[in-house]
Queue: 2 jobs
Job 1
Amino acid sequence: MRSAKIVGLGKYLPPRKLTNSDLEKMVETSDDWITTRTGIKKRHIVEKGMSASTLAKYAARQALKRAGIKSSDLDLIIVATITPDTQFPSTACYLQNHLHARHAACFDVSAACAGFVYALTCAWQFISTGFYKNALIVGSEVLSSITDWQDRSTCVLFGDGAGAAVLTSTSRGGILSAYLGSDGSKGDFLILPGGGSRFPSSHETIDQGLHHIKMKGNELFRIAVRIMVQAAKKALKKAKVPVRDVKMLIPHQANIRIINAVTKRLKLTPEQVYVNIARYGNMSSASSAIALCEAWEEEKISRGDVIVLDAFGGGLVWGSTVIRWI
Ligand code: ACO
């Protein structure tokens, strides 16, 4: 049975940084509150005019270069995003055009913070069946474009960025298993209500702030820990890999307290869990993509290691992928 392996990783963070002390000047908050409640110290924010496909382009170019694969050899491009350039065309189509990847089929995945895990699973399936050989997946978000900068309960949490992975067919190792789940009954826990067909953009939707993220943070927090533990265990069971064999867990970076609780419940040591939330905040689908890229750049992942991606987000959606690094 063939599988897919990651042969190149890339990332892009827009240069502008927004620190907790910058936020102290914008809303009633403090560095101490943000740090202790979330673990976030700063986040990167785009300059006006930079869209998800722009961030994706820089991350993708780096991943392709590292993979030694030409964009013209890509069969598939999947972009995971909840902040697409436009409702349509898809951000993947814009990215194809930026990269001149003229042979690639393109589509977007909307799975919020679990988007990169969903995209990875889709690409893996296309490749393992032999339908495609080379795929590019990108988690790219401009969350600053849907953030209410006057709402202290959400604006301190999010950042912008993109992470990319190039996958190709392999006869050994690579992705061993994946587990995906959803619960549409809790969609209102994390939602961008306006601008879709339910509430098309109008003066009224703007006046009501429906073009901004609405979040029930407390409810999500409780579910996130339980679901992320469950997802990782289910994916590992499918791969027939015991938790003790995990070299590195790459969790979604929503809150350091969620990550610590997941670490504890999975009986992992802090050294086995990659954390970069302090530098970037929550970048939705880009978070696990960038965390994976940085874990690799920092040589925390070597050949033969078992890596587990584990993510949870609005939908609700969640997923975990087990990879033997080769
Ligand atoms: N600064 C200062 N005080 C604040 C701030 C702030 N930025 N934000 C809220 N507070 C206050 C609240 O008003 C409240 O005050 P009160 O007690 O007087 O009413 C108090 O702090 C506590 O607020 P809580 O919301 O209970 O704080 P909590 O400890 O739950 O932390 C947080 C909030 C960080 C949002 C947390 O609940 C969380 O991380 N939730 C999970 C988020 C998540 O997993 N999202 C899913 C993935 S994201 C995606 O899919 C895009």
Job 2
Amino acid sequence: MKKNLICLIFLISPVTFAKHTIERVEPPFWWKGMNNTELQMMVYGESVAELIPEIEYDGIAVKRMVLVENRNYLFIYLDIGSDATPGEFTVQFKNNEDRMIDSIDYRLLPRKKDAALRKGYDNSDVVYLITPDRFANGDTRNDDIEGMKDKVNRGDKWGRHGGDIRGIINSLDYIADLGFTAIWLNPVLENNQPKASYHGYSTTDFFKVDPRFGTNSQYRELSGKARDKGIKIIMDMIMNHCGSEHWWMDDLPCDDWINNPDDFFITNHRRTTLRDPYASNYDRRHFIDGWFVPTMPDLNQKNPLLADYLIQNALWWIEYLNLAGIRMDTYSYSDMYFMKDWTCAVMNEYPDFNICGEEWSLNPAVLAYWQKGKENPDGYTSCLPGLLDFPLQNALKNALTEQKSWNAGMINLYEMLSNDFLYADPFKHVIFPDNHDMSRIFTQLNEDIGLFKLAITFFATMRGTPQFYYGTEILMSNTGDNSHGNIRSDFPGGWEDDEVNAFTNQGLTKAQREIRRFIKKLLNWRKTATAIHGGKLIHFVPVNGVYTYFRFNDEMKVMVILNKTANRQNVDLTRFSELLVKGATAKNIITGREITLNNNLTVDSKQPLILEIE
Ligand code: CA
């Protein structure tokens, strides 16, 4: 397998007459005290490969240098010893006559106290997913940046609308008040693409926030201010591909830095080819090495220099931003052994951290393969804590929209959850009614407010960590136009001249305000509902379109009843006697009303009932 080889390593043969200017060093700085004491420095500049780096600093030594086909790159591996003191040191670049040609100053920072012990998001959290360009424009001065190709145009669904990190910082009180305790931002790193750059999935600089979103330090400010309000930050990362305008695309380090650079093909998106015992090599290769789209070159993580670069990139952002989690884009599209190394490297540095991988399959068997602790027939393991639960999302939509039959309707949820035996730990998944890549849940449920409430209730009380997309709380929809640009519509009130303003309630309908109150009540209750965070789950076969489940631990017991039918339903409680004592008192957590549970209970049409059993 040629791809497994590092790109050609040349012997050092310095010449003295070339021009040498160091243009980039990545990562831009590092920390003392990481578990992995090795640091890869990627140095870029004309003919830097002809130079020899020298460092005189106690505790820091050049372990090795790696030269590649392109003489404008030099990969230096440093050893950061335990005796190295945080501070600034100089790397001198000398020619073969021992003359210094160029130098850089590099910083070794002290780590924050307990940086390695940071706690990742967990099931006590509820995640608010934001598409930053479309949420709030907190700084109009950064809407257009000179030299950046894609200009602001709010009238264009595919264009940039001007939302930014400042807008999110300004909205933290709104988000916290709703009961959210984590924010997942769609990517905000530089995407200097000519068009459709707003979504952020075409990285053109792995170490820099896009100036139209703000700056690295603003991203860190967001993380700090969010933490002060009890909100964790989850960063969206993409290691499968970069943007076609990435700075290295004009001058790639190695021939195998990206897959099929000269005759690229689009991935067939057939994730099953990795597991399928009957899959052809052709189809498998066309999944794994294909480009996501023509503007997203497929990175070859089998190249060990690139693998180190990407692993360090993740550690750098976790440490710099004080992150509580990573959402990893297109998880299975990257080299699977790289994903093992990447997840294990991250979790090795931060044992209590959390990561969810995106594997957009509706088949839990396909997801289960990737999770830490899964025993796979081929012996493959990884350190990935959890996945985004696409199968459960789809089951929920079908459960609420299909006509009831033996194998349709509510039974979808019951049957899908019964597949949880496939997972090493289904409680580690992130569960969601929708996200930035699919129709809004209100639209998926044909704008039925009753069904919508059932969906919100289900995800707020089911096993896993719930995630809701911005605007769900005010019934944002995309009915009639399921294009990404429309799904990711502007949040009303995020722009100064908006007629409707969700932050001030100006122009919101009664239904919008009611739903938001409902969600706020539910999520704030959930904060201390330990049975929902880590409690057991027992569910009962749906009867007459009514699905009932219990979440419980030693401290509390919660019964959730979802009636999707157009009629009030009488629920026979005697079926639940293994969990319910006849005559028990229960409190409706939305209305606060107390009831006594005897043999029967009436449940309103399309109304969720969440009862705390006392
Ligand atoms: Ca802006």
